[in-house]
Amino acid sequence: MNQENKARLLLALSMGIFGTLAPFVRNISVSSAELALYRAALASVLIGGWLLLAGRKIPFDKIRKSIPLLLFSGVAMGINWILLFEAYKYTTVSAATLSYYFAPCIVTAVCPILFREKLTAKQIVCFLMSTVGIVLITGTVSISGSGTDLIGILFGLGAAVFYAAVVLLNKFIRDVDGIHRTLLQFLAAVVTLIPYVALTGGVTLGSMDGMGWICLLIVGLVHTGVTYCMYFTSLRHLPGQEAAILSYIDPLTAVLISVTVLGETITAPQIIGGVLILGFTLWNEIPAKKK
Q: Are 116 and 246 in contact (CB under 8 A)?
């Protein structure tokens, strides 16, 4: 198997693992902020240990100017996780995940303001149709669902906003390697989440049962540490277009697990809304062929 095929396999596998996150999160009986803290801490230990064994030191002299941006992106990542975990608690995994995947549309809308990029007709159409998809999903739960479903979708959209912030901040960070960047962002998330958790409820690990501990270790070590390493390793050997296409394994896996494993229902308008969001976002990420 050549390097590019290995990269495809790693990326597809990492996206599939990301898509299985929700069932494990629901078995962990700590607050969303506390879970985000443990996730970042476990992943930091794992990735830091791997870098140490591989002899890949962080070049602090070269990245000194990027440290503030890494700190802010780490904070945004921690808040993003908190809101996503809250979304899983209030609504179905499919509704939370599809709402969360509105993030690329937010990035498309903000880039012209931050980077003076001109919006093309294609980007405008993709943004508007993805917005219609969100309206379909939100409107369905507002009419036929419970109030908690709407809260969950709003949490999902909030998580999308902060995920978009992570993406936009990373556009300004150009002198830091992907795996080093991830480790520093995780460490920044740990530093910011520790006082927040201490002030809002403290450590409640003693309330977890055996299944909760197993799920916590899987979320921290596998879904975050191992999977992020696989993700960034694969990105180095794949073109952006192919990586964008394979990334949609994540939401598709999450929706499939929501329906088949968790037994959650998904309505026809939600399916149409999801197709609009994922389809037009994917179309937006595929560059047009040059004549």
A: no
pLDDT of residue 141: 57
Interval 264-281: pLDDT, tens:
888 888 888 888 888 887
Distance CA 186, CA 40 (A): 5
pLDDT tens track for 131-160 = 888 888 776 655 555 568 888 989 999 999
- Domain parsing of the chain, residue ranges: 3-285
Alpha-carbon gap, residue 161 to 82, rounded angstroms: 12
Report residue 88 as tokens: 């899983």
Q: From CA 129, how far away is CA 121, in angstroms rounded?
A: 12
Residues, the chain: 291
Q: What is the mean pLDDT of the chain?
A: 85
Separation in Å, CA 8 to CA 12, 179, 235, 244: 6, 18, 9, 11
Reduced to 3 states (helix: H, G, I; strand: E, B; else coil), residue 59 is: coil
CA distance 40 to 38: 5
Q: How far is residue 225's CA from residue 49's CA, in Å, rounded to a whole number?
A: 10
